[in-house]
Amino acid sequence: MMDGHLVGYGLMTAASITPDAHMQGVALAPLAVAPEYQGGGIGVAIVTELDMRATDLRRDFVSVVGDRQFFGRLGFQKAAKYKLDPPFPVVTEDHLIKELVPGVLASVRGKVNYPAPFLTQVAN
């Protein structure tokens, strides 16, 4: 909030990896900052806060489909590096993941799963 106006927001929801169902992570989506406030650190502050909250909830990872340059600065890496498939068809390089527990993804392989609403196509 700035001057009583919402200028940015982010949401994390539960995510998992199959067949390694013991992994508990979160999906970061959506993340938005009003255009006139972009570039001022608000997006970074939102992601940093959400990462801390996910860590406090003992989540293992954060998954996002987004801008590689922006999220790369925040410690996200290509999910393909860990041999993790995206939850839905996307450009492979845009599916990014961040370990919240160092090394937790080292031996994990599979598919990152998002909640059903992320998988539903909206009719035009």
UniProtKB/TrEMBL annotation:
InterPro entries cross-referenced by the UniProt entry: Acyl_CoA_acyltransferase, GNAT_dom
Domain N-acetyltransferase, residue spans: 1-98
Domain of life the protein comes from: Bacteria
Transmembrane region(s): none
Pfam families cross-referenced by the UniProt entry: Acetyltransf_7
Chain segments annotated as coiled-coil in the UniProt record: none
Recorded GO MF terms: acyltransferase activity, transferring groups other than amino-acyl groups
Protein name: Predicted acetyltransferase
Source organism (scientific name): Lacticaseibacillus paracasei (strain ATCC 334 / BCRC 17002 / CCUG 31169 / CIP 107868 / KCTC 3260 / NRRL B-441)
Lineage: Bacteria, Bacillati, Bacillota, Bacilli, Lactobacillales
